[in-house]
Each structure stands twice: as structure tokens, then as C-alpha cells.
Amino acid sequence: MAKTTGKGGKAKSSEIFAGFQNLRSEQRQLANKISELEMDLNEHKIVIETLQAVEPSRKCFRMVGGVVVERTVAEVLPELEGNKERLPQVLQALHEQLAKKGQEINDYIEKHDIKVQRGSENASEVPREDAPAKSNVLVASG
């Protein structure tokens, strides 16, 4: 399908590979963003639990856009709770995008007849008895 000969074939296969790498990169970026937002959600929960036990007039500090601002607990707590309520919706949308990107990658693989190799051909393969054993050996000469 994607196999052609000559210089044009190599250029086409490198374009196909670049497209595949681009899709995988986008998938990784989505997964990283999901992970980051899940950590933010957990941090929001911890901070909200902590601030609920504090008197509302007490001052606290919050980082907004890289700048630390001084506020009171009464001002910060509703903002944090609002953010905590919106984060699951954003995470759900990102999970849907990640699933679509995975399907897009699978379609791209099928369309261009790409064979994906992972590490070794069969990770669960038992070493043969006649094959040399792999081991780490440190030899010190005296």
C-alpha cells in the first residue's frame, strides 16, 4: 500500500512516519495535560479541606498567573470550590479527545499499513536453553 520504490518512496514513507510521530506526540500531550489536571483537582480538594477548618477572616496567599496575591479565606474558598466543580468537566472532555486521538492513530496505522514494533518482539518470550544467558558482571583486575 505505502510501499513504493525509488527516491519518491523514501520521501513518502518519511512523510507517513512524520505524520504518525505527530499524532503520537499530540496523544502524549493530551495524556500529560490530563495527568496535570488530575493532580490540580487533588490539590484543590486538599486545599479546600484545609481552608474549611480555618476562620474566614484569616489571610491566605494564592498564586494567580505566577503572581502571589494576598486574600482572605472567605474570598479564596468560593473560587477554589468553583474551580473544583469545573475540573471534572474539563477532564471528561480531554478524555474524549484522547479516545478520538487514539482512534485517529489506529485509522492512520490501518490506512498506511504501518507495523508498530514495541521494545522486543515478544516480551513474555522465555529464553532458549541454548541461547547465552544475559547477566551483568563486574570484573575488577588486581
Automatic annotation (TrEMBL):
One of its GO terms (molecular function) is unfolded protein binding. Residues 116-142 are annotated as: Disordered. Keywords: Chaperone, Coiled coil. It comes from the Eukaryota. InterPro entries: PFD2, PFD_beta-like, Prefoldin. Pfam families: Prefoldin_2 (PF01920). Gene3D superfamilies: 1.10.287.370. GO terms for biological process: protein folding. GO terms for cellular component: prefoldin complex. Signal peptide: none annotated. Residues 20-54 form a coiled coil. Binds specifically to cytosolic chaperonin (c-CPN) and transfers target proteins to it. Binds to nascent polypeptide chain and promotes folding in an environment in which there are many competing pathways for nonnative proteins. Heterohexamer of two PFD-alpha type and four PFD-beta type subunits. Belongs to the prefoldin subunit beta family. This is Prefoldin subunit 2.
